[in-house]
## 1
Amino acid sequence: MRPVSLQQYRRKSAARPAGGSVILKWLLCSIALVCVGLLLVIPLLAVFINAFSAGLGAYWKNICQPDTLSAIQLTLLTAGIAVPLNVAFGIVAAWLIAKFEFPGKNILLTLIDLPFSVSPVVAGLLFVLLFGRQGWFGPLLSAHDIHVIFAVPGIALATLFVTFPFVAREVLALLQTQDSNGEEAALTLGASAAQMFWHVTLPKAKWSILYGTILCNARAMGEFGAVSVVSGHIRGMTNTLPLHVEILYNEYNFVGAFAAASVLALLAVVTLVLKRGVEWRAAR
Amino acid sequence: MSVVVQGLTKHFSPGSAPAISEVSFEAPTGGITALLGPSGAGKSTVLRAIAGLEIVDKGSIAIDARDCSKVRVQDRNVGFVFQNYALFEHMTIADNIGFGLRVRKRKRSQIEARVSELLDLIQLPDLRRRFPGELSGGQRQRVAFARALAVEPKVLLLDEPFGALDVKVRIELREWLHRLHDEIKITTLLVTHDQIDAFEVAEHVVVLFEGKVAQVGAPHDIYDQPATARVAQFIGGANMLTSEVQAEHAAVASLRVGVPAGVLNGDRVQVLVRPHDLRLTRPNQDTPDLNLGEVLHLRRVGGYVKATVRLANGQHVSVECPKSEIDALGIIQGESVLVNVREAKVFAEDYSI
Amino acid sequence: MPRRSVLPGFAPSLIVTLSYVVLLVVIPLWALFAKTFTLSFRQFWSIVLEPRAVATYQLSLGASLIAAAINGVIGLLLAWVLSRYTLPAHRLIDALMDLPFALPTAVAGLTLASLYAPNGWLGHPLQFLGVPLVFSRVGVVIALVFIGLPFVVRTVQPVLEDLDPSIEEAALVLGASPSRTFLTVIFPHILPALLTGFTLSFARAIGEYGSIIFISGNMPMKTEIAPLLIVTKLEQYDYAGATTLAVVLLGLSFSLLLVINVLQQRTARRSRSARK
């Protein structure tokens, strides 16, 4: 589940109270640093160190393996489909929920939050039930030779499912804290709905949209469980990069696995940097 | 471009008390009309309804003799200034002001000219490339005005325009609004809970309590002839005294006031006396006890003095007189004075706040 | 009756949102429950209570609980240190708190499995513990601790940062020692947030898949987690079995979601009242 939204970073830090034993402070800080080192820093560094353990040349060869490259390609394609769709949906849904009252709003919110709380494997299972050979639409799809499960569309759908709440929740959190006066002002000045949206609402929400997109993308590219269920693990065709890592690991090709993982780890680092950047900018 | 409002009624949630109920009034063309009342009186609701930002359950709104109940906000061509200004924070001042014109797809040169014109009008010509966040409250307020006026609206609607500002800035802006209105005679409706706004700026006042119109008229008319005790207490300072009617008159210290028709001897009525309609003088031996009062408290406030006096019948009144008078009188706390009542008004309804 | 609003876009946004949600969430869920209902009550329960399934519940629930508890302690410590003291490279460390959240689970699983293996950087020195860290339940807990850490830290940290310092100062002026102040003033205040973080961490851990299958060894009846059993059943085309277990997991997730919502509302209320 998503723990925090951008809105929480907009508050200012309270001043720290004076007093307190220095020994305690040092003790707590040391333990904290050890925990951070053991739990977070070392695992992250290990990915890169292991990836390059056979040298730069081997690393590059691993990356340029055709299967790895197509895994990267598929990951990018999946994100390229899922993220824009979810951004669009997220903005629309946030507008609806923040600005209007209607019966069933709470149920809608719960449904939107659902992917956050569902195990990724269950998410994948849902789509197998719908589009798998024995699924609801299975026979229909087979008749037209359309492949969803064990093919790219299934992966895209599963990814779409697990990532769609991110942007919606971020933008909703923002719209709920702001009044509609800006939009109303635009309307009194004669703006159409599209003009109002474009000139007033979207600029107001831009940091939240960006933040949600960053989180959405990180999850889309890194999703494992849901995609694993629907993909069929066909090398070179239906393997995303996280799945590829698993395959290499199961073949005891550790350096290869780490090389592929390093790409994902790099993505994670970039995500963290961008996330921090947006938090800082939005709080100003 | 007058604004005529008839029977406006709105409930915010079904079954609850209406926010506004049967509100009707007319705002004269080219004049400034104040919608005055305490918080929650429904004044902003009426204003927003006129703009089209609220949809009423009942009633009609006519701008320039044309019914616009079915007209969308975007098409009503009203200028609206929000309480918190609602400037577009990510646009420059020039872009803010020019927004309405850009929406109407005017030519760039036209927009630039109009924006310059308005920047001069609001006396902020150097700020065109700044952003709202860099401006003071008073400056933002004026930009909000300029933005609303840019499209030459038929009616200008101001929602508590001076609410969030310092007293000094408020005073300046009131004068500025007055001068602006002398230049541009646009029908203006102003929502405020501050009677000073109403008195200093408006020519026409609509007093609202709890969603209903209590009185309509020119400011001084409402002051001199309040329709109800509540209006009397809301506008201008007031002492509300109770008195028993004897011989068709109600007595307040030295003054006996005629009572309205239908009030009988023995009834208790409310009598309004304005603090500055009371004058204190030195009593002499002939002064009837009824007219005496004991000075409980004297406080100097700027150029005048506020005194609390206990009347012979035990009720307290607040008296305001110029400092010079009190000095000449030479009275101090605890002394007895003669209370002269110049004017008082009787209200028959049984109203207490 | 929907209240008419002046703001535009109600109908289009309603249609888009509803279609999206129905197509993507409602229909798939419907398929899940429909499939499960093809089973009789007895069949359903016999699958749910299969020994192998029960073992997975025990592992998933047990390991998640332990991991969430560990995260509660470590997370509280980290949140405390981050909000009250200035560490070297403070901003970097603060950003790193989100790493488990941003890092793909497969990468987490891979690196943890290799680190805690007997010949791994951390596994080797820790061999003296005598406990196998990978291919064991301990490994599962380790992975879940990593995954769930940000949930506690990021839930408790804002509450600590919003805490009005004058409340603590008042306690100190009245003579309370720092530890007493913590126990009687601060801790009760952050307790709802801590519980929320704990529950979030727990809920996430139950459904976790990617990071565990690398480190646990996936041995049935021993280190097999519930999600993995679902995948196994799927691969054997035992759709009914898979959906049954999925429904169990889903039911658990929903209950936890309810608990979390209540806790989060409590936290928000406390936070508002403590703010200056």
Note: The mean pLDDT of chain C is 87.
## 2
Amino acid sequence: MKVLLSWLKEYVDIPQTVDELAERLPALGLGMERVERHESDAVFDLELPANRGDLMCHVGVARELAAANRTAIRPPATAARQDRTKTADAVHVDVREPQLCPRFTAVLIADVRVGPSPRWLARRLDACGVRSINNVVDVTNYVMLELGQPMHAFDYDLLQGGGLIVRFASPGERLTTLDGVARVLDSKTLVVADATRAVSIGGIIGGTATEITASTRRVLLEAAIWDPPTIRRTAMRVGVRTESSARFERGVDIGGAEAASARAQQLLMEVAGGRIASDLLDRYPSPQPPRQLALHWPRVGRLLGIEVAQTEGEAMLRSLGFGVTKQGDRLTVTVPSFRRDVERAEDLIEEVARHHGYDRIPEAMPVEATAQATRAPELDAIRAVRDVLIRTGLTEVLTVSLTTPKVLDELRLPSDHPWRAMVPLRNPLIEDHTHLRTTLLPGLLQVARGNIHRRVMDVLIFEVGRTFHSSGAAVLERRRAAVLMTGRILRGAWNTPEQVSTATFFHLKGVVESLAAELRVGRTSFTPVNVPWLHPGRAAQVSISGQPLGTLGELHPDVAASAELPVGVYVAELDLDEVLRQAVFQPQFTPLPKYPSLRRDLAVVVPQGVSAAEVERVIGEAGGDLLESIELFDVYSGPPVPAGHRNLAYALSFRSSDRTLSASDVDTAVVRITAALQKNLRATIRE
Amino acid sequence: MPSMLELERIHKEAASAIEAARTVEDLDEVKRRYLGRKGILAKLFAGLPTLSADQRKRVGERLNALQHELTEKHGHKEATLHQQLQTTRTQAEELDVTLPGRRIRLGRRHVLTRTLEEMERIFFGMGFEVVEGTEVETDEFNFERLNMGRDHPARDTQDSFYLSGDLLLRTHTTVVDARVMVGRKPPMRILNSGRCYRRDAPDATHMPVFHQVDGFMVGERITFADLRGVLASFVRQMFGPQAVYRFVPSYFPFTEPSAELLVWFGNRWLELAGSGMFHPRVLEMAGIDPTRYTAFAFGLGVDRPAMVRYGIPDIRLFWENDLRLLEQF
């Protein structure tokens, strides 16, 4: 909201310079968006707190400055000349919704000459960003900017039936508003109507049918108070926000309507030559007594952590318009009607703090003992996952959790896939953000695509984040981790086989294995799997103790093509809730071996189709207690290995925890292993 | 038995043969011929007993000296040849050390995660317990319990995404404060962080998804001055001991008094946090007696401070995940 310095000075003495005010106003909580300087004047564009309707006018801002300088304001004179020729029953108003329109004043002004405003008036409106229309409308706006009371002027001779009714619109009722829009109203909209039709949307915007024109002679001046929530909801529903609605939303002084009307009457006579032709009609069925608050002064120090002299505090409150009486350190504070925001003692303490100065609050440190700093275990777990993935060489990305079902088409998911059970937003804003994500994969594909379009071809990324799943009326949040790898793993990879330097299925699998190993989740197994987005021959499901955790593999060539990605993109997605259930974060020391190990190499020729996992299982089962580890070091097919077979070369390590093994110990075990391989897998052992 | 003259001749001959050896193999051959078990010197030693005592002493001494001298000479030569051989070999193994090194790619945190963790670490150091909340919340906790009724105008600035009549995506992490206060007995000092959502169209300074860090402390002697002290300490740890900040009045429905924290950075005031003393109604709704306990609370922005701090001009860049940007942090 804009305020004009010279205008403020009508109501309060301001010793500060423009620069000093630009510092001082924010320190009082009146945010300074911008200062426009003119020759001897300045316009401050203020960002005001949402609960301070009283500050949306010059007198309100002046009152703050008066309190800041410990002086008082000079409110504008509002004595209006009354003309005794009026007829008392000329104006009638019927407020049918007194809850939502608790006060309505109206007065008739006759013999008005509508024309342009005097320059001083037009200039002040212009400086505050309000367009000058004509002298009558300008006076209503002027009083709004001065005292904060929005008003409306009707052409009395265009009102049918000569009076006003405050009622809800009938469904489908039409009103063309002053912004030129022909509107169809609903039954939740509160209107001011004449005998036959709505003539304005109450407290928000007037109608064109009864607006002030050059030929207007008699003006019916409305100064009313409207229920803030109703105004807010209606303005949002109708889609109009005006200077008037902005003030009513925050709350306008119910005690000030009469004075504001009188001020407008006085100005109308000055600038439009009018004559007051009726009593002020004031529909105010239940006047509210002023609010009284008890403030025990020591509470101020207890809450703020500083001592403010009680007499100083009382002076501040008085210059802000509060009434103060006391018995010792117990104050009774009467809240003026324009301070709707002050409801409790704490609100008064804030007034004291603001006018004492936040910059005079010392920097203290809490002395109260609380429990020791700790972190929730799940946060540590998530951090551990992130750390492991980073150590495997992946860069973390963050993608937006809002998405659309279309991204699942990209993964070719069938309609009954669980990820299709997306939670929709009831009020989405843009068409790319209509649902909550159920998987992190589309986000990673999008990141890869973006980078590759920018010729960043090596994309090794992961995201750890939440997905959202419908579960009846509830929404389940799950933690997931997803990985995407494509391009070079190694920089400076000259003279290096591509198998090593560029991301492959086995690099991705290595990441998953590292994660499982670092989190000590126990035995993980990988089994072939068929999911729509992965290459059918290069996809695996990873499980711990039979519990599936997720999938990994090469992106299906068709999915890659339609996602505008090259071939050779590897993706994994894991359910972290499940991983973390199995994880061990506090490992125990395992004693280091005392006795040496013995190594035996074993070349196992098996038919194609026998998986390495099967070979390892048989070796493991037959190896006995002495078999410490099995490590595959070569895979070969081609002569001399018979066609349809392959040779898997293993380094077996044997060790005992209580003695040095002899060659014959190991020979016995190897014979057992060999026999089991031959029997169970029709394997042959190459010498 | 050879004469002394003969011995001198053998000496000369052996010495020059050692000298003449060009390879380790040549030298081994020379060694075998003169100094070997069946070499010339060994044969001469074997003939000593046939000599007279007088001769035996003279020839024996000479032979010993000869053997010693030749062994030494051989040793020197052997070392020289070995040295030459190593030199040749290592010369052949020479690398172009200016070729690029092999580097595995190093992973890193997203710059926003890094900022969040940094903030969290500072408050952890000030004794805050770090907890976590959910991103899907109820209208009751997100708004009502924070003193924002249905028609509160402050809801305008926190336009939310609703999932149902009651469920919404949290608009601030302050909702977690309202959650964790319930059923706990003061004193407490708690921090949480994470994603929040507001119904804003994406542009250079807005995203519908953003991050916040929220903390509060409840106790019998917690004051507004404590809030200022904690925030000032945070500012100095985050922005350096010389950091300049402002603590000015503001308005939040859930705090009274309320304050905004601004930091002077990059030639402008950066809005860092909203804060204040928890409104007594917020404490009441959480089952905490506001006449006995007081509490401060603060909510810190993450994304915009990170933009300003790192000079990132557009908030959408955080979510675009261009690796050329991410790898700079």
Note: The mean pLDDT of chain B is 91.
## 3
Amino acid sequence: MNIDRHTLSQLLLGLLLFAGAAISSVYLDNYKLQVFTSLAMVCVLCWGWNIVGGYMGYPSLATIAFFGVGAYVDGIAQAHGLPVGAAWLCAAIAGAVVAVLMGFALLRLRGHYFAIGTIATVEVCREVSSNWTELTGGAIGLNLPIQAGSPDFIGRFFFLAMLILALIAFLVTVVVHCSRFGFGLRCIRQNEQAAAMVGINVFRYKVIAFMLSGILASSAGGIYASMVAFIEPKDAFNLIMTIEVPVMVMLGGMGSIFGPLIGGVFYVILREFVWAYFINWHSGILGIIIVSVIYFLPKGALGVKWKSIFPYAKASSGAACGKGVIS
Amino acid sequence: MALGQYLINGLLQGGLYACLAVGFALVWGVLNVVNMLHGAMVVLGAYFTLYGAQKLGLPLYVVMPAVCAVIFLVGYGIQRGLINRVIGQPILITLTLTFGLELIVNNLILHFFTATPQSLIVSLGAIEFAGIRIPIVRIGGMVTAGMLTLLLYWLLYHSRLGRAIIAVRMDRHASALMGIRIPQIYALTFGIGAFMAAAAGCAIALIYPVTPMMSGLFLGKAFVICVLGGLGSVPGAIVGGIVLGLVEGVGTLALGPQWATSMGFLLMMAVIILFPSGLAGKKGYE
């Protein structure tokens, strides 16, 4: 663990942002709270994916499998009478277990086979959840108990819960970014054989990274399920979401601390806008966004060389450039 | 006799699956791109067939080749204009690009053909043989699909174009040195993949009702078959298709139809984990 000044300033900036978001929850109305909660959730998923996809360079498409497992475990635990907090803990533990088991099987694969293996787990999870009617309620879905309290209070409660999870995800990312572990993951991304040769226990690193990603995603799923109080297989294991998450991280910048946050914020704002004005064309427009990200921002917003786009800003003030290039 | 019926159904389905997957396998093997657009091409083929046969009232033997030709051109254009620019980049890029294109194509299908299931179910009667019932349309579909797959096999192994495609699959750089125009071969290969998808779509339009939502289902089948059969191998796709058809047929009998899709995926995951290069695949495409 060695934090340089640059990372430290990023950490402080992040903590300030989180404090600001927590304070702002007092003033927001219910619609904005809901948008902010989904934003926090998306950021958790992005930070979780970033550990595997960004730092380690494995094209994982299993994020939503973990998310859905978390949602269902939370639902089933609450149906058996556990309180909300305990149910969330169960969701996180289930995510870890599933991720380790899946990791042992899938992390031996590379490239396309890994990507396809992880997509297949989403499909299998969805089929299992829609066919195992006694446990999951099948295709009809599962109703969760609605939390007691006024709508205003519940909205803030879930927003803060998701925000705390996002803070955890952020801190985990910072730790991964500066630790020996993160260094090992970056070595694996660049050359796995070479990483093994210099003494990194490649398989263990990969499984641990996968597990961290799984815990974050399944906890987000657990909180999400308690919040919406109803889950169904199509919603919990949404195949579009599983590709949206990597796109968001790509939009921001892979393998960086703030990339997932920037990509997530940008994407959620865009999505709200598209949903509001172009409901019939939303999937087409999402497709266009995905395609244009790949052509125009392949390294994400953080990877753009702003100085080469705005050469005059460099001479006048470094601060203007500094805003764009956080990482 | 139920088992025999399910086996025959599985075999007929398998022929269709082979046609569905062979284009996907070819694109994966030659371009090293997992083509998420494949399912949408199948659905597009099915809808064009419906449109040609119902709205324009043309006979099927005119509609089908026309549809396949149009979709070949669509595929050629997409590869030439869009995918060729990102070829050779990390998997995540090509995968998400084709997924984005799939969203666009699917949205267009939804807009122009609506989400209502449409069908052109043709009934030509059935053959009864030892208590097993075989609808003639399904035999026709399977024979057409099988013939096209064999034709593709012949094309790959006995024509100049086919030899060039195989050469590019083996070693892109060496084949460029031999004077093969790589972007052209990539575009033609993608076009052939789209052509086979459209052919499968035509056959499917004759047998099942079609909805735009089916593209994910077809894509999933293509994944499974491709992994079972190995990458870019035409015989592999045929074997994989028939195996999947039989497994689904027998699985439906044993566990009920709702588990059919999961069984295919579980089979695929088992194969991926046990044989990381496919049952009939060669090393080197991981």
Note: The two ends of chain B are 42 Å apart (CA to CA).
